[in-house]
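During the reporting period the student researcher (J.K.) took over the structure-prediction task from the postdoctoral fellow and processed the backlog of single-chain submissions. One of the processed entries is reproduced below for the supervisory committee.
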Amino acid sequence: MITPQDPTAIPRLELHGFNNLTKSLSFNIYDICYAKTAAHKERYIKYIDAAYNAQRLTKILADVSGIIGASILNVARQDYEPQGASVTMLIAEESVEGGKSQPPARPGPVPDSLVGHLDKSHICVHTYPEMSPGGGLSTFRADVDVSTCGVVSPLRALNYLIHSFESDVVIIDYRVRGFTRDVRGRKHFIDHKINSIQNYIARDTKRRYQMMDVNVYQEYVFHTKMVLKELDLDDHLFDTAKDEIPEAEERLIAQRIRREMMEIFYSRNMSKGMRL
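J.K. obtained the following structure tokens:
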């Protein structure tokens, strides 16, 4: 957990003018389930549409805005037919004491499709339900982008977003762009200490996920992939109880789900003989 005394934070720079650094945090979040029949798949789509409507998206965006230290100026939202929703929110930056990270918020409802525009920043979330043509697998993907300037940091929302979705696979990119000048005219290309996105991930999350980093330190580009270590089949069956499935079929479904997770994690198809 990141606390206000977090050692990754450094004292705020004495700047000449506005902090022009842009800090961008991007997620690809995947949730995989088994929908056995065509009727199950149809009910799954209806569930997704009902669970991730514009009202719930607005709540998530408002929570994220509060976590990163921004105030809401205006909100516009829309539910779409046959499915989907979006929210647009205008937000102004508020001062954050010491420019340091805040503790992560408690998990909230899961969003669907959302766009938020800040006065110097933006937040976007979109969801993509997808069905496999065979095998009963359904994959729900959410893309989340939080891009901020000044003392507002998207890293403050990291744990909240991870816990909000409770996903099987999470792929995170964080990049700091541009530069800002101090009162002496010296350029600063980053205003905080970071060597991995994992610095900002809570301990309970680290225990649950296998993680892999690909970082380009000299370019201030950080990339972390996460996949659940343990598979609980009950968490991945839609409208079906585990005890309703024969043991042999249960093992096959678990293998399919695990393979789907690992293919997304490694971004490549795996042959049947490959070890999961």
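The committee noted the following: Residues 22-266 form a domain with the S-adenosylmethionine decarboxylase fold (CATH 3.60.90.10).
J.K. will present the remaining backlog at the next meeting.
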